[in-house]
Amino acid sequence: MPTKRTTLGALTLLAACAFPAVPSEAQEHKITVVSYGGAYTQSQREAFYKPFTAATGVRVQEEDAVEAWPQVKAQIEAGKVTWDVVNGETATILQGCETGLLEPFDWKLVDKSKLIPEAVTECGVGGIVQASVIAYDADKIKGDTPKTVADFWDLKKFPGKRGVRKTPITTLEFALMADGVPHDKIYQVLATKEGVDRAFRKLDEIKPSIVWWESSSSPPQLLADGEVAMTTSWNGRITQAKRADKKNFVIVWDGQNYDVDFWGVVKGAPNKEEAMKFIASATDPQKQAKQMDYVAYGPTAVAAMAILPADFAAELPSSPANLKQGIRNDAKFWAEHLEDLQARFQAWLSK
Amino acid sequence: MMNQVASLSRAGLSGAARLPRPLGARLGPALLVAPLLVFLLIGYVLPILGVLWRSIENSEIPTELPRTVEVLASWDGRDLPPEAAFAALRQDFAQAQTARTIGIVARRLNLVTIGYRTLILSTAMKVQAMRPPYKEAFAATDHRWNEASIWIALKRLGRPVAPDFLLAAVDLEEGETGIRRVDPDRAIYLDVLWRTVEISLSVCALCLVLGLPLAFLIASKARWTNVLMTFVLLPFWMSLLARTAAWVALLQSQGLVNKLLVELGVVAQPLALMFNRAGVLIAMTHILLPYMVLPLYASMRAVPVELVRAGLSLGAGPLTVLSRIYLPLIFPGITAGSMLVIILALGYYITPALVGGTQDQMLSYFVAFNASQVLNWGLASALAVLLLVALALLFALYRLLSHGARPEPA
Description:
Radius of gyration of chain B: 30 Å
Number of strands of chain A: 10
Oligomer: heterodimer
Helix content of chain B: over 70%
Largest interface: A-B, 31 and 35 residues
Distance between the termini of chain B: 18 Å
Number of strands of chain B: 2
Largest sheet of chain B: 2 strands, antiparallel
Radius of gyration of chain A: 23 Å
C-alpha cells in the first residue's frame, strides 16, 4: 500500500514541522549574552560563561554583534526582546540607561567597594578597563622610536601611513595632544568651537596619510602587513599580538585614553534575574584575572590586579606608570557632544 | 524591449475593454496575481510608506511631555510662556523621570543646542522638590529656563510631524528665525548626493563604452561569441560580496594587479587602486557590465541586417549608416541598459564601502551609518527618501526620453 504509507509519511513530516521538538529547550535555563566576537568573546567564554554554567546550570547562549545597539533598540521597539546581556562602552551604556534601553542594575548583588569606582554606574557594571593607544612595530621602526603623540603626527621623522579608528572619540583628543594641549585641559578645549577647529586643523595635517579602521581586529593586522607605520588601537589587541603571535609591537603609553567597558541588561530581557546574577559573577577577581590570560585589558575588580603576574600588569592601562601618562575618556563630555562632533567628523571625512 | 512589453500589455487591456466578459472571467486573472499583489503590498509598499513616515514623524517630545506640548501650543512664542507651562513641564519631567524616559527628551533637545542634555537631566532630578510658583523654581535651578530659546525649541519639537530630518538630508535646518543652511563645517549630504549621481553616471558611461563593442561582437555571432557571453554572464551568477571581495584582493597595494605591475617594471611603487574613486569605478563597472550588455545585445539582435545593407547600397557611408540607422534602432537597448545600470548604481553600498575611501562613500552608506551607528533612524529614513526621489526623477527622465524618441503607438 504505497499510497497510504506516503500519506502517513507526509503527515508525520507535517507534524514534525508544526510541532518542532523543542519542549526541552523552552524549559531549559539559558541567558543570551551579546559580545564583540573573536578573541574577546573567547576570553569571556573561558573566564565567565563556563564557570557560570557549571555553577548554576544556566546555559550561556553566545551572540556576536559589532553593531549591537540598533538591534537592542529594534528588539525593544518591536516588544520582542531576545537578548539578555550586552557589552558597551561608557557613552553607549550611559545613553542606553537614560533612554530606557537598559535595566537598572541590581547593586544588591555586588559589593561596590570591591570594584574600581569607574566601574559602578546605574545600569552598567564595569567589565574591563581598556585604552586607545598608539602602537608601532619595533621590527620596522628602529633606532629613534616614537615616544609621544606628537611623533604620531611627525610624518618626516617617521614616514608611512597612520591607522586611525574611524570615530571622533579619542581621535580628536589625540589631535589636541599632538598640538600641545596639556592632558588635563583636553576636554575643556574640545568643548569650545575654537578647540574643535584646532583639532580638525591638526587632523588635516595627516589626513592624506590616514588609513581608517573600524573593526578592532584591524590595527594589529595593519601593523603586521606593513600597511601603516603607526596605528591607534585598543591596547589589548596589541598586547595579544605580542603574546600570541610573537610580534614585536610596542605601545606608546603617552596620551593613552582609557575607558571602562560595561556589562548591561537589556530592558525587558526574558531572563532578567539570571542575567543580573551572571553579571555579578563576572565581577569575581579570580575570574577576571583568568580573563587576562586571553586578552590584555585591565580588570575592574580591585583584588584582581594583585593576582596578575608583574609583566602582565605593566602592559595594562591601569598600571601606575601608564596611568599618569594618559587621560580618562570623558563620557559626560561625549554624551553631550557626540552627535554634533560625529556630524562634523563625517562631513570632514567626506571632503 | 521594455517598450514592446508595455505596448503589448496596453493592447491586451484595450482588447479586454472592448469585449465585455462575465465577471468570473475578469476576476480570474486578478486572482492569479493576487498573491503577488499582496506580496508587493506587504514587502514593498508598506515598508516604503513606513520609511516616509519615519522621516517626518516627531513623536518623541509629544509622547514624553504631553502636558507641556499642549500648553505651549497656545503660547505665542514671545517672552516667556505662562506659569501653566512651567507647572506642566514639572509634571511631565517627574513622570518621565519615573518612567526612565527623560534621557529621550534630553537627547532630542541636545540636538538643538549642545548642553541642553545636562540641563534637562539635572533639572528633572530636582522637580520632585519644587514648590510653586514654578517659574521661579525653574529659574533657580538654571538661568536658561528664564530665556525664551529653550521654550521655543520645546514648542517646535512638540509638533507631531516635523521636517527636521528631511531638511537635514539636504543640509538645511530650522533655526529660530526660519530655515537656513547648516554650518559649512557640517554640510555633507548635498555633496554626497551629487557624488552618488556622479559615480552612477560615470559607471554608466564606462559600461556603455565597454559594453557597446562587446555586445556588438556577441550579437555578430562569430564562432567564439558563446565564450564571450559566458564571460559576461559568469560574474552575474556570483554573489555581490564575493565579487567585491575579489576586487579587494586584486586591487590592494600588495594585491595581484600591483604585484604584476611592479614585477614587470611598469611602475616602481604600487599604484593606489583601492580606497579611492578609481577602485570604486573599476569594481562597480565590472559588477554592472552585464546589465548593460544584455539589453544592448537583445536590441542589436533585433536589428534587421537588410536595413543596414539597404542603407549601404543606397550610397550611405558606414558612419551615416551607424548614426542614421543602427544607433536609432538600438537606442531602446541603450536607454534600457543605461537606466538599469544607473538605477542599480545609485543604491550601491557594499562595493564603495569596501573598495572606496572616505571621499567615495555614496548615499546608501550614510543611510546605513545613521541607522546602525548613530541610531538616528529619522535621518536615515530622510536620506532614503532623498535617494528614492532621485530615482523617481531619473525614471521620469527615462520615460520622457524613451517616449520622446518614438511616438506612442496609437
